[in-house]
């Protein structure tokens, strides 16, 4: 029977999960309006003040750098939500991952000044709750110790000595009934695939199929309907604003879309092959391939923000699932 979940784990996962969700929504709202004139004016005002005035920093350079920092925060917030869910279910790897993220969050909030003191304190409290005695027993799978009262003393009555009588030998040298034949062992049944492996295969396969279809559709649009697509980019007002703010032409945008679609299709086909391999061949190499593919997906999904947010979350889930002991044991029992 699984160890009961202590209240400290529930509170830690609740605080960390809600905090990660709030951070995710805040960063998403900032990135959604990224590069606006108002934001550029604010950054320009900050750069004109000391001690940044002497560094001669460009507004666009600062915008690009801050965007990567915020994207890293988005990935960390998604990972925090995933770790909070699986730590709530008793996953030890998620306990460690959530602890690392809470530590990084505490340092980041403290560096922001007095306004970040309360979030940093909450992050430290989450770490303390995740690693107290009850939480450590829970993640180790140990039962909580029971506090029982003293057992009542029972006075034993002296028993009369028993006189042993030897059994009489069987007549005529009879040696007794024949020993029964050993029962036939049941046929060997292979171990069932654990839920962690099944979830990893489903997420990888479905995500790869969606990416392959979307990439193939994009290639079809930019090759067969290139003239119409280029006309749309040059004539539509919204697309012209996007191209102008990105400092690229319609040909540059079509080239980027084409090469991006090629990368999507190639990675999706590799992911489908790895999924089929991991589903049919139980080998440690297949688990490592799933793990490596999830890391690649995590990096690529950040580059295609915000379209890749779902794949970012799926990659974090797969990383957690294939790192579980039951998944390692299943892939290693080939």
TrEMBL record:
The chain crosses the membrane at residues 12-32, 68-88, 100-131, 197-222, 253-279, 291-320. Coiled coil: none annotated. It comes from Aeromicrobium camelliae. The keyword Isomerase does not apply. This is Uncharacterized protein. Keywords: Membrane, Transmembrane, Transmembrane helix. Residues 152-180 are annotated as: Disordered. Residues 156-166 have a biased composition (Low complexity). The keyword RNA-binding does not apply. Residues 167-180 have a biased composition (Pro residues).
């Amino acid at each position: 029977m699984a160890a009961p979940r202590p209240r400290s784990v529930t509170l830690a996962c609740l605080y960390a999960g809600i905090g990660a969700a709030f951070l995710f929504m805040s960063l998403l709202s900032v990135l959604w309006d990224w590069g606006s004139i108002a934001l550029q004016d604010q950054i320009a005002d900050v750069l004109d003040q000391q001690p940044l005035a002497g560094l001669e920093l460009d507004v666009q350079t600062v915008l690009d750098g801050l965007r990567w920092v915020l994207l890293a925060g988005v990935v960390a917030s998604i990972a925090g939500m995933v770790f909070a869910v699986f730590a709530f279910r008793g996953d030890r790897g998620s306990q460690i991952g959530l602890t690392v993220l809470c530590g990084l969050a505490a340092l980041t909030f403290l560096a922001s000044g007095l306004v970040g003191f309360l979030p940093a304190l909450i992050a430290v409290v989450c770490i303390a709750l995740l690693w107290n005695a009850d939480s450590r027993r829970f993640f180790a799978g140990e039962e909580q110790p029971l506090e029982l009262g003293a057992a009542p003393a029972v006075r034993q009555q002296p028993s009369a000595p028993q006189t042993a009588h030897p059994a009489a030998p069987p007549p005529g040298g009879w040696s007794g009934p024949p020993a029964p034949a050993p029962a036939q062992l049941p046929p060997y049944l292979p171990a069932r695939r654990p839920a962690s492996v099944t979830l990893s295969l489903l997420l990888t396969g479905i995500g790869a199929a969606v990416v392959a279809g979307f990439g193939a559709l994009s290639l079809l649009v930019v090759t067969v309907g290139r003239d119409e697509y280029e006309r749309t980019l040059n004539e539509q007002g919204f697309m012209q604003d996007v191209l102008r703010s990105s400092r690229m032409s319609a040909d540059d945008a079509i080239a980027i879309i084409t090469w991006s679609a090629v990368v999507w299709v190639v990675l999706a086909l590799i992911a489908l092959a790895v999924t089929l391999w991991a589903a049919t061949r139980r080998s440690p190499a297949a688990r490592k391939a799933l793990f490596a593919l999830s890391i690649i997906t995590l990096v690529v999904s950040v580059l295609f923000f915000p379209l890749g947010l779902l794949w970012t979350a799926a990659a974090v889930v797969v990383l957690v699932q294939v790192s579980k002991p039951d998944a390692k044991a299943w892939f290693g029992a080939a």
